[in-house]
Amino acid sequence: MINICFHYLDQHFLGQLDEIFDFHDFHQLVLHHFNNPFDYRFTLANKELDLFSRQSFARYQSLLMNGVCILVLKRMSGGGFLEIPVLTDIILQDLERAVQQIPTTNNEERPCQICRENTSCMKLCCNRICKVCFGNYFAHSTFKLNCMTCRRQVPYGQFFISPEFVRALESLNEICGLMNYIDCQICHCGSLVVNETLYAQQTCGNCTREFCFFCNKDWTEGKIPRKNDRYTCHVSCDYETKLSYELIPLQYNKNVHVPNRRFCPSCFTLGSYDEKCKYHTCSTCQHSFCFICLEEEDTCKTKYNSNYQHQCTDVKKQTYEDFPRIANKC
Known about the structure:
With 330 residues, the protein is an alpha+beta fold. The protein has four domains: 2-74, Roll (Ubiquitin-like (UB roll)), CATH 3.10.20; 84-176, no CATH class; 184-233, no CATH class; 247-304, no CATH class. It has seven helices and 18 strands. A five-stranded mixed sheet has the order 2-1-5-3-4. Helix 3 (84-100) packs antiparallel against helix 4 (131-140) and helix 3 runs antiparallel to helix 5 (163-179). It is globular, with a radius of gyration of 23 Å.
């Protein structure tokens, strides 16, 4: 049997499927817990399970393995999540206690990879790191356990001892993953909502707060009135800010102009031009790309016979369509 958990609000519903199941079997399982599946979206590993198309459902059917948890979003009234800053604060408060549980070994020939002084360290993949340096390293790595030598991402459960702390980190990753989708947002009340119209002005079905979906500010906040347009309210709105830029001279070649900011094509984190060359390495995912053509650094160099100081092509525009969406239809 395959055990499946549905997570909706603060509730968990458990169900089972045969090892060999089809679209109809899963649909019946959903109907057992949710009267009208059309009112909800069912996501797994940031992929939407389509309950109204056998062909679309089959694309992600292999994700339904024993022990999986399916996140259930009600259309504009679902959820049960902490906002990212709140969860981040909780993790930072618990970090010291979680680190103190990890054993260290003393090796004078292999000191801490960062400070090179402390010889009593924890093992992190190919590296050793002391507990004093770990906090800054972990926060700077956006709470990822990236090996400083081979760059492999170490699973939390292989490093931290506390199961509760591991679950908190996994929850943060899940929320951050969902927030990459332009049509997902977390209301201040904790409701995780999906926007099918992609217009800015929305009302939370849980707390009735009227807000801009894309920057998550109260609709009447501030002196400047907001406009209800697709993707933006036009008042320092998040996605509009990610797309906007000014052209400034390239540091090493004043005849070439480069955007002063871009969002990473891989993880969508906003980054600024650092007054060096046109290539930028994302601080979040380490993806290296050209600020002008948006191609990966190696691709830019070979495709356009370019280098760090030359114009490869015209400045490529980024659009709202570049951001992923959890909904199948806009």
